[in-house]
Amino acid sequence: MADPRPPAVALEGIAKKFGPVVALRDVSLTVAEGEFACFLGPSGCGKTTLLRIVAGLERQNAGVVRLAGRDVSRLPPGERSYGIVFQSYALFPNLTVARNVAYGLEARRAARARVAARVDELLDLVHLRAHRDRYPAQLSGGEQQRVALARALAPSPTLLLLDEPLSARDARVRVALRHEIKTLQRRLGLTTIMVTHDQEEALTMADRIVVMHDGAVEQIGTPQEIYDAPSSLFVARFVGHMNFLPATSLGPGESRVADLRLRHRPVAPDAGGAVTLAIRPEDVVLGPAAREAANRGPARVAALQFLGGYTRVTLELAGVPGRPIDCDVAAGALPEAGVKEGGEVVAALPPDRLRAYPGAPPAR
């Protein structure tokens, strides 16, 4: 049965220009109550502008912003009931951790006892009770980010907005904070929108991802949908690692790559049209398993890269000069596959994992 409640966030036909520059083009989407959504895309795609429009920090030129069914398109930020965490933290350096967290409540003239209780609750939530009397300069970057998160949560908002909150952190801190933020969001059941250019962040944290490009939405889906079934060549290139092969369509479900005829998912244009075939490195099959598979053929091992739990094997397919492809093989499976640098192997591109997109492949 359909949920009778309106979505937590609904954007309808949002457009924005900065002078002659078009930042957003007719963007429409919804975010369900309690959902963690990521706006993902490269720099300049419009994702931060869209977040700022949700927050009321930018005014759209066209379109409607609804929060829980209420039209807030013309309301100032203070009347939209959200908390926001910026990349730069924006903590007050002259205030202690506790006073930073309390700031929004004190500005709303909340009772002193309520403020104290809420600050203690939130500092426990982000594991910073022991640091309540320290100043921001006495904290690590990850601790400062947790203070900013607690401050955003202090007024009990119905919506949490995160603007590239992890991009300034080193790799280990980013991974830890990803887990903490996602765990906290699930525990609170708080609708959250995060802007990021980092595909790994989006894939590991989001319930749904909104992939943006050139001011428009390219695809909306779960992380698995975005990764397994990219709807466009842009999404296929931007999310995860993908091999691309230029091809000529021979009809639905079959194309020619140089001297090879390859079967693939039947999404190509009419016969004779230029297409790009795409396959993930982990979907390429090597060794004994490839010998009876469809789309198989000989290949030369051009290079090996050890990447911890797996090895990336760069292959040159026979009859396809100048277009090497990568294959990811679990470290323990290399001997069975008969893989050694400079050697020959049988490789297969399974038809159910090989996708076709109209047009030429992206520049490498």
Helix vs. strand class: alpha+beta
Portion of residues within helices: 10-25%
Major beta-sheet overview? 6 strands, mixed
The gross shape turns out to be elongated
The spatial strand order of the largest sheet comes to 6-7-8-3-9-10
Number of helices: 9
Mean pLDDT: 91
Quantity of strands, as a count: 20
The arrangement of helices and strands along the chain is EEEHEEEHHHEHEHEEHHEEEEEEEEHEE
Low-confidence stretches: none
Write the layout of secondary structure elements.
Layout: E1 9-18, E2 21-31, E3 36-40, H1 47-55, E4 62-67, E5 70-71, E6 82-85, H2 97-107, H3 112-125, H4 141-153, E7 159-163, H5 171-188, E8 191-196, H6 199-205, E9 208-213, E10 216-221, H7 223-228, H8 233-238, E11 243-251, E12 254-257, E13 260-263, E14 274-279, E15 285-286, E16 296-306, E17 310-317, E18 325-330, H9 334-337, E19 344-348, E20 355-358
Parallel strand pairs: 3-8, 3-9, 6-7, 7-8
Antiparallel strand pairs: 1-2, 1-4, 4-5, 9-10, 11-12, 11-14, 12-13, 14-20, 15-19, 16-17, 16-19, 17-18
